[in-house]
Write a structure and sequence with these properties.
Layout: E1 12-19, H1 25-34, E2 39-43, H2 49-53, H3 56-73, H4 89-112, E3 117-128, E4 131-136, E5 141-151, E6 155-157, E7 171-172, E8 185-189, H5 193-205, E9 208-213, H6 224-236, E10 240-243, E11 247-253, E12 256-261, E13 279-282, E14 284-287, E15 291-293, E16 326-328, H7 339-354, E17 367-370, E18 375-380, H8 383-388, E19 393-399, H9 404-409, E20 415-421, E21 427-434, H10 437-449, H11 454-458, H12 470-476
Parallel strand pairs: 1-2, 1-5, 2-3, 5-16, 7-14, 8-9, 8-14, 9-10
Antiparallel strand pairs: 3-4, 4-5, 6-15, 11-12, 12-13, 17-18, 18-21, 19-20, 20-21
Helix pairs in contact: 1-7, 3-4, 3-5
Amino acid sequence: MRRTHRVYDPMVKYDAIIIGSGQAANPLAIKLAAAGWKTALIEKRFIGGTCINVGCTPTKTLIASGRVAYLVRRSADFGIHTTGFSVNIEEVIRRKNAHVLTARESSAKRLLETHHLDVIFGNAVFTAPKAITVTKEDGSIEELTAEKIFLNTGTRPVIPSIPGLAGVRYLTSDTILDLMVLPSHLVIIGGSYIALEFGQLYRRLGSEVTIIENNARFLSKEDEDIAATIKSFLEEDGIRIHTGAAVEKITKEADGIGLHLSAGPLSAPTGTSTASTSVITASHVLVATGRVPDTAALNAGATGITLDRHGFVVVNDRLETSVDGIYALGDVKGGPQFTHISYNDHLIVYRNLIEKADCSIAGRPPVYCLFTDPELGRVGLTETEARAKGLNIKVATLPVANIARAWENDETRGMLKAIVNADDRTIIGAAMLSSAGGELMSILQMAMMGRIQYNVLRDAVFAHPTFAESLNNLFSRLQ
């Protein structure tokens, strides 16, 4: 009788492998495991992805400290007189760290307690389309395979090729979160939403701030009236904004870091000189020129999945890559880089796989907030986009100064703007630049989802005095 020998296969087989633990990965892992799928979640560093560790949680916690400093400075406007205050940046950072740690540990606890889910810490690399090697912190290696693989590896800051940049200690949106000193002069390269939030934060904490934007038009993705209003209140806060200029080189100077600029008008805070300069000296430089996908270390070429020229994973409307059974979710796939988009990605994939639905990202409305103060809540089309499409529209605008609650709170900066379809009276876009702008935007988003006509909101009964009742006056302007 011929003896047979059992062949040992060292590769661990799963139903699903998820690489990265961002805001799509974590809920997807828990739901797949609950559905009975043997699931592995691989994370190379911290649970929670960008949002918890270097995005929403830390930045909004810091912004809250900046707002307190702003209100204390303004306390006399409300009849409250203080004898002075100081900013302890180390305490500000420690408060942020505590919030991040709490959020991270809470997420990790839930994952680790989930049945059918293995959380593996290590660096994942593809060796074949459905084969992954994980190198753990202790140097050990584990080989995994699954028919379904999900990429949620996120992005990292772009570092531009500026001569001299590598020779100075620059900051990114990640590393500035742990800066334990208050810059005397923070210069920010880039005019993105990240740049504006950090710029206003550090100005409120006491730093001099200059923003350098390469684009000739400030916030070019927003309508000009919205962008101009944001620029106006940032300048009112004392921030200098340099548009249409590029940093040609960076040098070490005796008194700091020298940024040599190409031509471009330099705006100035209210009441100060508008003289331009070709060299700006900074104590600290923040690079905020965008983010690139974390795909290079994956060895994506071993899978056959398609990457675009920037390294983002190419997907279809169902978040499927060019390889059957491999999906990309969140920032790594390109497009809008927001936590709520990543979370919605996991719902689409889960419902299609487990509930046999036919969900798609096609038609998903653009929705986001810029968390300056006042904040901008945006949903749907801008006026510029609607006109470019040739739509028959009406545009309603309202200064925030005309809102009773804003006047009572002495928070009158900003404007409300809504774009409606003149043919059927439905709302197709909104920009709520106001205190509670994100919440106002969400009201209009709900109206858009239900195709509620603008005149219904115009005539609706909202409690007084609230910011919501401003929608009565906003849409009354279309009469």
